[in-house]
Predict the structure of Peptide ABC transporter.
Amino acid sequence: MTDVSRPEAEATAAKPFTPDQAFRPPRNQWWDVWDQFRSHRGALLGTLVFVFIILFVGIGPWIWQVDPGFIDIRSRNQGPSWSNPLGTDQLGRDMLARMMYGGRISVAVGLTAMFLGLLIGTLVGVLAGYFRRVDGILMRTTDLFLALPLLPLLLVMVLLFRDMLARNFGEAAGVFVLIVVAIGITSWMQTARIVRGDVLALKEREYVLAARSIGTPSRRIVSRHILPNVLSPIMVSATLGIASAIITESALSFLGLGFPPDFPTWGRLLFDGRDWIEQYPARVVWPGLFISLTVLSVNFIGDGLRDALDPRIRGR
């Protein structure tokens, strides 16, 4: 029997390598992360929905230039029309403009509170995981915050500091600072525990032990070797923190303890529409729908990032 594969092999071996093939740079690992992320259909769909919501609240007011606070009593409680696509409320204010403006505030609160909680949680987690002397104190403090009833604690903080901050920063800015700080300092505990667990495992790796053996300072080990390797849980916690902050702000606004009526967040729109839910159910459907879509899309993005940033899953 003749070997038919030998000519093909000789022809392949005779082909010279092109300069592009010989000096092709190695593939960036972030391309692998992106390939794994886009293979997660839920994460890709969540990204599209979240980008749409960001464009809706960010660019929408520039396109739909209607004052969300303009009162027209003659047009109150109207249904959808060309002039008011989502109808009007009990004071004749345009619901589409209020949804856009309120979404901007809700998303801003979610992002800012997430960054604050992420900063506190990462700091506590790294310190507790790397420095054994402060591990016990920081973890017992974390357990104490986890044991506290968060919603009653938030209500007490709002009642105690709302008037003082409103006098110093103005009503809207004071409430914004209060809600962001209140959510941030009550949402860092899960991040701290996750980061601490990863740091405890990382500080026993060979490259960390080698850096310590040559006298590298602890702050440099943490910044160069520890933090880059805990980005995966930090980024996942960030996406979940946005959803949690938006839900918490909406709950406070729904209870009437959030922003004043002139600053209509999605939770405030739910609060204003609760008395009209039987006659005009769309008044609560639209803000509730946008809150649900935002939270679901962010959660799907977090699931996709968790899978994409895990090298064991990415290598399959």
